[in-house]
Structure formats: C-alpha cells, structure tokens
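Hey, I was hoping to borrow your eyes for a little while. There's a protein on my desk that I can't quite get my head around. The fold is given in discrete form, as structure tokens running alongside the sequence. I'd be grateful if you could look everything over and explain what you see. Here's the protein in full, and shout if anything looks odd to you:
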Amino acid sequence: MSEKRQYPTVLTIAGSDSGGGAGLQADMKTMQAFEVFSTCVVVGLTAQNTLGVQGAYPADESVVRAQFESIMADFEIRAAKTGALFDERRVKEVAKNVSRYKIKNLVVDPVMVAKGGAPLLDEDGVRTMKEDLLKRALLVTPNIPEAELLSGMSIGNLEEMKKAASKIQALGVPNVLVKGGHLAGEKVYNFALLGSETFVLTGEKVNTARKHGTGDTLSAAIISLLAKGCSLKSAIIAANDYMNAILPQPLFTGHGHGSLNHGLWKNPEKVRESLTGESLSRQLVIGLGNVQYDKQKLLGLVEEACQAGMTVVQYREKGEKRVDFEKRLEIARKLKGLCAAYGVLLFIDDDVDLAILSKADGVHVGQDDTSVEAIVERAPELLIGLSISTMQELEKSKKDLAQITYIGVGPVYETTTKTDAKPAIGLEGLKAIKNQVKVPVIAIGGINEENAVAVYSAGADGLAVISAITNSDHLIETVKKLIKHGEAT
C-alpha cells in the first residue's frame, strides 16, 4: 500500500514568546487558522510579555540542528519561514540547514527589533542574514526599520519603500514585501516586488496597541497559503486581507502591546455594544418538556421560529422528566447551530457549564440560581439575563445591573408553563420595575399575541413567550403579530 500524501505541513524556525503574542506561538496560531499542520524549530527562548522582552536565551546550534534532523526525517515540509534568529551563529546554523535539506518556499521574516524596541538580532547576525540566508529565500518581509537595516537607506514614504525593495532584492532574494505600517498616515501601504512585477497593498491603519506579532502572523499566513498551493502573489494578497480582518478585532490580553486575534474570536464587549432593543425583543423560551420530549419537534419548531423573526432562544428544561447533561448538551449545540444560522442569540437557563460548552451567547438565571457575580467571575464572555418579579428583588439586584444584558420581569400574567412560578405582578408591576431601570426589560409569563400590545404599552422592551409559539397552529403568523405589536408601540 502506498503512503498517503501528507496534509499540508509547514515549518516555523523562530524563537518562543512566553507571552504568546509573537514568535512561533503567533506562527502556529496563524497556521491553525489557515488549516495547515505546523512544525517548529525553536531557535531560542525569550522571557517576554506584552510590556517588553525581559530576557533572550538562544538555543545551542546542536539543538537547532537536531530539531531540523527530526523534522526533515519525517515530515513533508511544503513551506517554511524564519522569525527571530537571535545572533550570527544561529543565522548561520539555520542557513546551513535550509541548504542541507533543500527547504523550498522559504519566507524570511527578518525579525530584528521587538515591538517595545528591544533588539532581537545583533549586527553580525544582520550581516550574515544579508550575505547568506536571504539568498536561500523565496521572499523576505521586512517592516520599515528592518528594511532600512537591510537596504542601508532611510525610508519615509512609498517611493522610498520601492527603492529599498530594489536594494534588498539585489542582495539575492528574488521577491521582497516591504511593510509600511511604521509610516505616518491613516492608511498602511505594503509594497511588493516579485521579480520584476510590483504592486501595492493597502489597508486602514488601526489605532490600537494590540499589534504584537503582526510580522510573524503575516509571514505565517503567506507560507500557509503557499503550502496549500497558492501562487506567491495570491498568497501575499490573501494574507494581507487576513491582517486587515483581524487587526480591528483585537484580543484584550496583558497591559501593553497585546496579541492579535488569530482565530477571529468574538469580543464580548463588542457583542454587548452591538446589541439593540431589537436584538432582545422576541424571546422564545423552550425545552423538551414544552414539546412532549420530542427532540426533532423541538429543533424544527426553533428553526421555524428563528426563520419567522424571533431574536432570542432560551433553552430551559423545567419539565417533570429529568434530562441528563449529555442530552441537554447535544440539544444545546444543535440549537446554537440553528440560532447562529439566523443571527439569533442563544441563552441557556441557569447552567453556566452548558452555556460554555455549547458556545451559547448567554445564560439566564433566577433570583435563587447561580449569582450574577459568580457568572462574571467564571465566564465573563457570557451575556446575562436575570429574572426579577418584585421591587424587593430589584433592590437586591441593583448592584448587578451593570453586568446584566436584560432583566426578565414577571410573571406578568398567570402561567402554567412553569410549576414553581411566582404570583403574577400584572401590568402595573411591570411598569413600576421598568421605571426604575435603564437595562432592557423583557416581559415574561403568560404573554401571547392578544395581550402583547398591553405589555409593550406598559413599557416592556421585549417579550418572552412559550405556549404562544408551541401551541400556535400558524407560527409564522403568530410571530408576525408579535413583531407588529412591538413596532406599533
């Protein structure tokens, strides 16, 4: 039997960043995002965080050599990149191994100075890179300070970037990408010189300190795309697009030059800021107990409700039968997929673990459930809904209101869908609580299409319904009426 062709595999030859934002850590996060398999040669370690580099510890050449031997004996490396190489001895060792193993599609990211200003390559190392390593590369990707060191000229604008690229190409590397992020202006210009072809890539300059590891990330993206079969030009353009996508969505880690968001994770604060009254206005509360414990009926009903215009689904198991955690998790994950497809938020009733594992948007709790403070401590990314039925409960919860996405106020009317429901507070009770808070108020308990107008008129920002949907013979029409009633008031 012939051996199967290996999955696209790449190699980063770089230093380790203990802060996780740059170096081989940034490379491997990027490679994971582009769905290629990453290997590494660790050229050295750094004691580093977002505030700066506190120490640098180059690996012995024999250790670097041994890593190359192990990797090249087993893996089919389709593309590789270099990052921080520390000094002349390490640069020579890397160049020797690149030549020995005939490593193709090598991109040199000539790391010389850290974001905080600390030098990461000595003068002899710079000279050796110019005289030896660059000749073995497909592409070099210097930023402005690095391009100045490699070209021997100062750079203050796009025309000087072009001249510097030609000087660097003359060192023996066929292709040059000069990154212009250090230059003044509202836009960023990257100049590419590929053989005799030239082009300029642009992007908006993002005003953030969270840019640690941008050079590592760009070069890692390029080799990932090369490994997947892209041409060099296409790889550069797509990698530049990736940078433009992730830079405006930083991760808030550390207290200095923070990391990039390689996986485009959602920023909880941005999600909260983007929420509107409309986002929370129509909530379907549902569980297996509301549909005779028929999972397919539950999923079908939720999908139809999402299509019709419900904006939130709250998954809640309060029926007579106990539903074990594994089954609830299976259902919650399927609900998350359905909700995400229609831009609908998913909340889980009083189960933080279930909310985290299903990747739900939030959790809803009652007065006797997990405390808001505990949820914020455990899972600050979750949105939080809190049930309030009396002015006394509101007073008790005032300290938590800043952390809450909405409050569910009620039951407004008598309800049979919750066996332990509290006494109905009526429209006056709803109005009294609404007048005391600025957080969105979602009316709960006994709400249907007949009384929705009165509930909205009492000040509710939205409605939570159960039987109005589960018992409806014309679900789409029911949701349309709820939408119409909300718009009318």
